[in-house]
Structures are given as C-alpha cells and as structure tokens.
Amino acid sequence: MNTRTLDVVREARGKEIAVRARIEKRGDDWIVPSQSTKGHYRVCMDATGPRCTCPDYELRGMKCKHCFAVEFVIQRQTVTESTDGNVHVTETVTETAKVRITYPQNWPAYNKAQTQEKALFCRLLRDLCANVPAPTQTRGRPRVPLNEALFAATFKVYSTMSSRRFMTDLREAHEAGYLSRPWHFNTVLKTIEDAALTPILYDLVTASALPLGVVEETFAVDSTGFGTTNFYRHFTSKYGGMELESHDWIKLHALVGVKTNVIGAARVTERNANDAPQFSPLVLAGAERFHMKEIVADKAYGSRKNVALAAAVGATPYIALRSTAQASAMRVWQNPGAQRDSTAWRWLYHLYNLRRDDFLAHYHARSNVESTFSAIKRVFGDTLRSKTRPAQINELLLKVIAYNIVCVVHSTFELGVSVPGFDAAA
User: Fold this and answer.
1) What local confidence, expressed as pLDDT, does residue 135 receive?
2) Residue 425 neighbours by CB distance under 10 Å
3) What does residue 302 show for φ and ψ, rounded to 5 degrees?
4) Same-domain check for residues 31 and 180
5) In 3D, which of 379, 404, 410 has the Cα closest to residue 203?
6) Residue 191's pLDDT is what?
C-alpha cells in the first residue's frame, strides 16, 4: 500500500472523527479525542502547518487523521462580513463518504482450504511430531510415545474444547491411524503440564513454519499478551493506595513472516518482561532456519545492539527509532565487528530521519504482526485454561504450533506452496 493510499485512509478517518466526535479549541490548540483510547491529542494549526501529538504524526512528520479532522471542522464554518460591519457566521456541513480499502481474496482456494483444514492438519501434525526423537527408557512401565503425546496435546489445543469433550476427536485420530491408542484425557493434560517439553515446543514452532520459508523473506518482531485464569494483586497510588486485583497474563514474543503471517520463532515471558531483550533470541532462532532479507520492528526494539544483530544475520533493519536516538558512532566494543555495527546504525538513523517515505514503505509491513495476533486469539482464544505457569507456557506454544500448521494448510491452496512428502489433493 503506497503513501497516497494511506493518506486517503487517514483523510477518511479524519472525516469520521469530525462528524462523530466533539472537537474543541483551547487557546491555539484543538483537542481531538482518540478513537482507540480514552485520551485525546492536541493539534496545532499555525503558519508552519498542522502538528499533532499522536504517535502517527511523530513517526511520519506528516498530517494524521486528527489533523484532517480539525481541518474539516474549520471548513464547516465560513465567516462573511456584511456592508454594515456585522459579522454573520454560517455553518456549512459537507457530506462525506467513508473510504473502505479492500483486498482481493481467492475464495475458491480459501473455501477449499477451510473445508479440508482439519483432516490436513492431522496429517501435517503427525509428520511434524514424528521427527521428535523419543528419549530412551530402560526402567519402569512403558511411557506414552513422545510423538503421540505431542500430537494429542497439539490437537487438543487446536480443537479449543475441554479435555473430556476432546476425547471424541482423539478416538477418531486413533481410528485414522495417527495414534496407537486413544489416550486418556489425563495423559493429554499431563503432557501439557510437563515443563521438560518446553524446549521441544520452541523447536517445533520454528519447524512448523519451515515449509513457508520459500515465500518468506521479510519478518517482523512484536509481542502480545494472553490472559490466564490466575489473579495478581497490586497497589496503586492513583486511587488512594488501594489494593487492586486483576487477571494475570503472560507475553508472547514472535518473529512473524509478513506474507503468510506464520510465526517463525517465539518466546514466552512474564507480563512485565521488556520487549527489546527478546529481539536477539528471536532473530537468532529465525536466522538458523530462514533466509531473512528484512527485519521490521517498532520503537520498543530500537537499540543499537538490535540494529547491529539484524545486520549481522544478513537482514536489512527497518526499526523505528526513539526521539532520543543520535547519529553518533556506536561505542567501540571489544570485537572486530564494531565498525560494521556502527555503520548499520548510522544508515538506519539517516534513513529514518531524512528519507522517511522510503523507510515507511518497508516499515508498513509491521502491521501484519497485529493481524497474526488477532488471528490466533480469534481462532484459538485469547486466554489460557491451564493453572500452573509451565502448563500455561506450553499451552501458548501449542497454540502457536497449531496456528502455524493452519497457515501451511492454507498456503498450499492459496499460494501453491509444496510441502515435502505432503500432497494437499491426496
């Protein structure tokens, strides 16, 4: 989507704000309410042009939807002066039409993928779990095969049903030959609660996205939260030192391919974990399996080390920078790549500040991350059923694995991606 199209969208949203919202003038500024939060933004209209305090204007340095809204409010009023000196103010309201941006959809391929998704999901999941090496057992009762335990746990999360109601699907999987027996639902729950499986699940996230590496070259990094059934307490001085209780949640940090929205690498942390430190493990995990040409991220990841890491793995960094960023050379560390790292930072700094349109043409791909997070939460739920923290981490990773397999299924129909040993038409 080019810059002109985005400006048309901003102008349409500005008209919507001007029609529905209450915009007030306070001194030299106009107070425009935010559409997404309860706050507001200040728009200054002077000889130098409109300026706004919203993040969009701060990033682009160009008119945002709030600036357009103020312009429409001003255009509503026309001032005419009669011959006797009396001033008459007449209000002119212009009817506006919303501009809706639509994208083409291959409906026959999409419908075919949807109607065959569950059966193909089981086949791909079986092949994915079959590559997991089983630990050697020398004593005790025979354990559930690791590949079958992972299959049952992932299939349970995919079904979005309780463990008992899921038993019908598990019996059908056994009849189809995916399992040696229909395991008890408690066996499935114990698999999800096993903290020793977390490293394996991290590897399966990347492995499940690997078939789409042939079409993915640009990746975006971001995070989102998933609620839990637990509660946590905190004190706030805003309400007189009251003790408040809220639902607990954990963070999913993801490296997302912007073409198919598949998640190439993932990390799960506590709710208060910072985003910037997770950039390194995500990018390094993705670099082992994918050929990354571009890496896109917002200001939360705009550090010199992250920019240098993106350049080190052979990708061009398009990371938004904070207002405090400086073009000075990076501090020389005790490594031979310091000069190269400094060059990557200076290149990004000048691109971001002097050639903003060129930067935004690539940075716009980051919005696909929000589509990915929205899809996972809509299809597989935005809350976790597990009680313990290890089980919650594993359940969230199983959601990501299930989502990736669904992406592969749809890509075989819509993009013609071929998976080794798998034929969608079979």
Assistant:
1) 84
2) 7
3) -80, 65
4) no
5) 404
6) 97
